Amino acid sequence: MERLKFIGKRLVYLVIMLFGVATLVFILSKLVPGNPVTANLSQRALSDPEIVAAFEAKYGLDQPIIVQYFLYIKNLLQFDLGTSIRTNNPVLSELARCYPATIELALFAIILAAIFGILFGVISAIKRNSLADQAVRAISVTGVSIPSFWFALLVLYFFYYKLGILPGPGRLSTSFSPPETVTGLYVIDSLIEGDMMKAMDALSHLILPGIVLAAFTMGLITRTTRSNLLDVMSTDYIRTARAKGLSETAIIVKHALGNAIIPVLTVIGLGFGNLLGGMVLVETIFNWPGVGQFAYQSVMSNDYPAIIGVALLIALNYMVINTVVDILYGIIDPRVRCS
Hints:
This protein has 16 helices and no strands. The chain is mostly helical.
């Protein structure tokens, strides 16, 4: 009962935050410099008042701001994000088209970051002040510091252009056609089709952009894991476990890592949200048809409905992920539910 009450409270907070973010996104969208009319109509069309008036009426730009806001909230409650000015398609369908590509790449990157980040953090904490510790710390600092666009160009140059051991931009090689859409994730959809070669090709296309995106989050996870594990290893109950004769591996796996991993969940959650919403440069370099590319194209054309849709999607990603992390806190550590 206590756990259900805790989860229910977090879900109520999520709804309140969604409403606040939706209002803030609307206000910010109106403060963006530029005019969607001039950005999307030709000079010849701009000289015709009837065409301009029809364009403004179609997208509600001729209404007072307060009327636009209430129409915007009403449409959101009906899951209607409006129509993209650039493509003339519903924004929701455009996001549904490009979101699976972003999810597939973000999932691959966060799995890489979590596995290697926790592994490196544990090694660094166990081998404190050793050569292995120094090497791991150097890798984590490099991952956090290196600009993603430069790292993307670097790995493309060496592993695709020079060595030719990994595929370049895109989600599939030109010798394969996209699989029939079930989940939108090429690897899974190819497996559903039963085409193992296509699935392996799709997976190989994830490696380079996945490594680039995982580098920053992996560095943060490594440092957080090392720091928290060192703190836990100095506590009294760990010293008691050692006094009882337990092996170092058993102490770390059964006693230390469970307590040290709780703050790491926050880093993983925030990292995953960041990957889902902040991949514009990497998606552009690797020609990955995801939300990042769609956001860039929408901003360049002052496509207000699409910009609002992308902003709401990114905000929703963060809020849902943070809510899930909060609930996991309560499941892992009962003390959180009582606070």
